[in-house]
Design goal:
The protein is of the alpha/beta class. It contains 17 helices and 10 strands.
Length: 472
């Protein structure tokens, strides 16, 4: 999902809460209206402040009911009529919960009118809130804000129909960036530069791995159903059929991490990284001072890595090597010279085969550097990477661009999520894993993601670290 869609999805929660509170207030004041009081006098003693306190708790419970009944769906194309039907049903369930509570808790409540009126007002107000949000989304789309950038692959009439429909109806939230008659390996480099959100295939007759590589660099993937089911079903972890511009499609998601899952994971990352930085800051300062006294500046080593959708970023680590042996643009010409030396060491001492290297008894590592590598202390600054959004606490292991160049066509799925400080590979063998084993574990995590899995990996990580590892 795009950030604008996630914002509107989250925005529904406070709007619904506000509408529920307004519904309760409206029912309260309506009960004290002169006409109703004259018809039937008020016999209960309930101040507005006490009533609002009760209404606040009831509204919070109703929000949970709304969530359980799918009112905060991640589907951006769900019809308004379906939303309004769910609102009526959810409010009715909420009314039932209140009635059951009053009955079983033996609460004496003398105004059934307040309950019934609140239910009616809730249906009306929440529906109005959803309509206003839809209107806001429509205005944004018509202004060209938050549109999904999409490329259509196919030259047949059905592809032309999709393009025509999307171009004419901005309210659907799509902007067609380009239409290409035939998919080919050469087209991948073009697609990757377009910053796409989705790709629509109307006839995806292409090499499967090449197609998946393109799709994995483009976030969500839509494929017309009648052409694509056989081709992609074996590769899809999550499939859903839904209409796009009147055409039935299969939406393939390489990972369950989307919508509220994405929000929950980011909240977890921010909270966990803030706690870790706060608790570990004194130790990090101490380690920085030791590195500074041992070999001078810089204390932090910035190493270029490849993350989500092939985007490059600099990972932060405590420097564990001598300055003259550090690679990367941070060290200018000396870094280029150090890279040539590293290539020689890889050929001579690498203990791993394949694209990923590990140098045994690395002569470039300082005395203190060996210590911090052995206990993974050099990776502590990566919590700042998590805080600024480059990485996640849990995710696939990040690799250097020169390593990625050797396997990105074979394993494109590993770029679906943000790289992680820890992950399935880190708790399942760490440096002892072969490259293929590491890839399989990362892909398994991506396709089976859940917050529970993240929590298990996060809890297990310290125990794995304390087992010690070789300081390669």
């Amino acid at each position: 999902m795009k950030r604008s869609e996630i914002f509107l999805m989250i925005f529904k929660v406070p709007v619904d809460f506000l509408m529920l509170i307004l519904a309760g207030i409206s029912a309260y004041y309506l009960r004290f209206a002169e006409l109703l009081v004259g018809f039937r006098p008020v016999v209960f003693d309930l101040s507005l402040s006490k009533y609002l306190s009760i209404a606040t708790w009831v509204s919070a419970v109703w929000l949970i009911i709304f969530a359980l009944l799918g009112l905060y769906s991640t589907d951006p194309n769900r019809k308004l009529s379906k939303d309004l039907t769910r609102i009526f049903f959810a409010c009715s369930v909420g009314l039932g919960v209140v009635a059951l509570y009053v009955m079983f808790a033996l609460q004496q409540f003398d105004s059934r009118f307040l309950v019934a009126a609140s239910w009616v007002f809730a249906i009306v107000y929440v529906s109005v809130g959803r309509i206003l949000i839809r209107g806001l989304k429509g205005l944004m789309y018509r202004a060209g804000l938050g549109l999904r950038r999409v490329a259509v692959i196919g030259g047949e009439e059905i592809a032309n129909d999709v393009v025509r429909e999307l171009n004419q109806r901005n309210e659907l939230g799509y902007k067609v960036i380009g239409q290409y008659n035939v998919f080919s390996a050469q087209l991948i480099s073009v697609l990757e530069k377009l910053n796409l959100d989705e790709i629509v295939f109307t006839n995806p007759r292409a090499n499967e791995k090449e197609a998946l590589r393109a799709l994995n660099f483009c976030n969500l993937n839509h494929i017309v159903f009648k052409y694509s089911a056989d081709l992609f079903s074996a590769y899809s972890a999550n499939m859903a059929v839904s209409p796009l511009a009147g055409v039935p499609i299969v939406e393939l998601k390489r990972t369950p991490l989307d919508g509220w899952g994405r929000v929950a994971k980011r909240v977890f990352d921010v909270i966990a990284s803030l706690i870790a930085i706060t608790l570990l800051l004194p130790l990090m300062i101490l380690f920085a001072i030791i590195i500074l006294l041992e070999t001078g500046r810089p204390v932090i080593y910035k190493n270029e890595r490849v993350g989500i959708r092939g985007q490059k970023f600099f990972i932060f680590k405590f420097r564990s090597m001598f300055q003259k042996d550090c690679t990367g643009p941070q060290f200018g010409r000396a870094g280029l010279k150090a890279e040539m030396k590293e290539k020689d060491l890889i050929e001579e001492k690498s203990v791993k085969t394949g694209p990923i290297y590990k140098i045994a008894d690395d002569p470039r590592v300082t005395k203190f550097g060996r210590f911090i590598r052995r206990w993974s202390i050099d990776e502590l600054p990566q919590f700042f990477n998590v805080l600024i959004g480059d990485m996640s606490i849990v995710g696939p292991r990040p690799h250097q661009p020169r390593e990625v160049e050797q396997y990105e066509k074979e394993y494109p799925t590993v770029f679906t999520l943000k790289s992680g400080i820890t992950g399935m590979a880190q708790i399942s063998g760490r440096s002892d894993l072969s490259f293929e084993e590491e890839m399989k574990l990362d892909i398994f995590y991506i396709e089976r993601w859940s917050m529970f899995l993240d929590l298990i990996i996060f809890i297990k990580t310290p125990f794995v670290i304390f087992k010690r590892r070789k300081a390669l």
